[in-house]
Amino acid sequence: MKRNVLVFLLVVLIGTFAVASGQQSSDAKMAEEERVLTLLVDNATSLTGMIAVADAFEVKTGVKTEIELRPGSAEGENLLKTRLATGEMSDLIYFNSGSLLPALNPERNFIDLTDKPYMDNISPAYKQTVTVNGKIFGIPASSSAAGGILYNKRVYKELGLKVPTTWDQFMANSEVIKQAGKTAIIGSYKDDWTSQLILLSDFYYVQQQVPDFAERFTKNQAKYSTEPAALQAFYKYEEIQKKGYMNKDYLATTYDEALRMLASGDGVQYPMLTFAFAALNDNYPDQIDDIGFFAQPDNKPGLNGATVWLPNSIYLYKNGENTDLAQEWAEFYVSPEGLEIYSKTNKADGPYVVKGVELPSDTPKGILDLMKYFDEDRTAPALEFITPVKAPNSPQICVEVGSGISSPVDAAAKYDRDTEKQAKQLNLPGW
Amino acid sequence: MAKKQNHHYSYLFLLPAGLIFFIFFLLPALSSFFFSLTRWNLTDWTFIGLENFQMFFKEDSLSIGFKNTFIYAFLTCGLKVVFGLALAVYLCSPIRTRNFMRAIVFFPNLISTIAVGITFNSLMHPTRGIINTFINTLGLNGPDWLGNVKIALLSIIAVDVWKGVGVATVIFIAGIMSIPEQYYEALQIDGGGSMDRFLHITLPLSRPAINSVIILALIGGLRTFDLVWSMTRGGPGFTTDLLSSIIYKQYSSGFFGLSTAGNVILFIMVSAIAFPVYKFLNSKEVDL
Description:
Chain A is α/β, with parallel strands linked by helices. Helices cover 46% and strands 13% of the residues of chain A.
């Protein structure tokens, strides 16, 4: 009896193995016939536009694009660097432009796109952010965006408020909102990257007052703690915290919860990037027209402008098996055809960096608010696009000053000391 | 003759095990000592001497990291011994639901640490978490468990103890069960009370168990990482940073040489604490 059971089990086992291996070989055959590209994207990015372009590419060429998701921020970077070092990378990689790129060792890992004819159509301001040692490595994955204050227009109207152009007006507005029993400024420090926005969006004023700050910062000659224009941002954190304008649970609030607060009007002003409009449009389509944008104000008379984030990029893995296909994919992505599909399905976060692509008519109203700053030439690129040096602990430092753990001066000094690690790792001269 | 017997088997038999040990343990350990002296991006390296160690000690959050690591290790260790022993004594007494209770105490250990972290993250939410909702119904105001600078680390320690006390309890139960019954009978004849039972028999004779728990909990506490990372990521700011989370953040920023140097320092520190403690505890052990 016992023996029979054993024999039966053995048969079942062998049977399953046979089925499984048969399955495998037929899978392998499928892969041979079907050409597939893989694209690695972080899980916070809105994928609608990218998927639409990839689908169109599949219709045209029969090449499928498989999307792999990775976690965001430090964990994701970690994963990227490990996969690059072990040679297990996807064919196409979606990643930041600017200061984080040199750390991925682009010359060794990515295909050099400098001589591609389509590069002539792409704006020099963008190309600069994906250039390492004179070679261009990326194509723009989306439109550009800006950092500033997203605000709920409906509540602004109800309370009779006007868009502020100075910091004092901004604080006065916040006081009115607070008195009305709503959250004046939304803090979402649980996702600590969001805490950096006040610091980063303030760079327009630094650049207007000290035009060579970025250059000297890279050379270890200018510092946040010793440059009053740069130090100003840290005082803004302190003031907001001391006046109690943020939601009570700002340390436990996430980015997604913050967007919900903004859309519902429970929270009225949110220091954020305009790329949040894509997420707002996906999740709160009925409220999207309630949300507006204004540049983070400063008290310097006559100065008011927005800090611009150039688009994130798609890079092509050099040591993969499908490099030719990947280059075809990239060319299609930035072609007029590809961009038209993209801009139809994905709402723009700001102007495109490719020549001849206009914003569609159904662009959210908040983005049109932002376009005014571009039209009047009141913009400057964010610091991370014009220097490779950024403090790796910047999110934690901003949380500290934003929650009153450290003073503005201490936080700025800490920021300066933290940048040293990055500069030394990149072996920059002067450090 | 005797010598020949020692060489009954050829040394070649040691080769497979030795090879595995060399490739997977010795080689990585030695190479990490080497890479801690370089600026390294996983593919290329430049030798820079002790600069990494210098930079690691200049790290702003390092003093917080050291302080927190010690507080964390010693507090979790102490609490696990105290609660573990109390639970073990209780669960060795003739109560009806003994086996069921033992299982309950051990349960938290079966859950992945990350899952525990995420769960407590929402339980401890300052406005919507169950803990504070409960406190609010009593008419009190619950603190921000993980956001308040003063108690964030203590909250994590409490969760760690809740999760880890089961293992300590099981070790203690085994220790107490191995104490021969005669000692207790002798005490009963001499007219000792239950307090004497504990102080003069259970406590001294479960010394080996106590030592194991102390060593395990201390080393575990010194190099702990997963719970802190899943609950606060070292935040708010740097308040709950431990040595291990500082190293992890450096690693994920791409400072591979620097973080390897940090790991070498962590290794030296754990050994420098664990070995003397181990020696000291062993010298105090008594035979049954």
